[in-house]
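DATA SHEET
Item: assembly model
Revision: 1
Owner: S.N.
Input lines:
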Amino acid sequence: QKEVEQDPGPLSVPEGAIVSLNCTYSNSAFQYFMWYRQYSRKGPELLMYTYSSGNKEDGRFTAQVDKSSKYISLFIRDSQPSDSATYLCAMSPSNRDDKIIFGKGTRLHILP
Amino acid sequence: DAEITQSPRHKITETGRQVTLACHQTWNHNNMFWYRQDLGHGLRLIHYSYGVQDTNKGEVSDGYSVSRSNTEDLPLTLESAASSQTSVYFCASSEGTGTDTQYFGPGTRLTVL
């Protein structure tokens, strides 16, 4: 079993819909959880960063961590065509950047 | 504005040649990282540095080397390029030793023929 599993998609949803992106993981030591957005031919950019379990909201984005199920989610409300990108989950057992494990990414298409 | 740049953006080389990819950041960040991104594997850490003269191996370091002679630059060298090193390479930097925001460069697309 891979440490971090993420459905590669593509996921296509109509504009304005709520998008749910998910990752599962196997390492119970993961404490830090991140979501990155990557536009085509660009580098990833950090969207959300959470520590341990719970929810975190930032504008249209909500990150959710369920450590008991080893499952993390990113919700995008009122999705826009500009949200079309690849979303990478990432997680780490410590606060060291060199321990971050990335998911393979989910390609998201928002249809106008 | 502070930024992180990579050069070249595209490179085609032949098997066995030495190749150096440049990474330059103007945030004055202590931490710098090199990743490769391949279909089916996601981002994988090659080498990283937590300061001048500090370098460390990551998950997939074989065939690669780095050196850190100043804060701004972390060049990545492929000693003898192999076709398996065809990939997109990303440089990143972050401020401290915690899990701070990593800022990624635009990437270098390397093809080894």
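QC remark: The CA atoms of residues 13 and 106 of chain A lie 13 Å apart.
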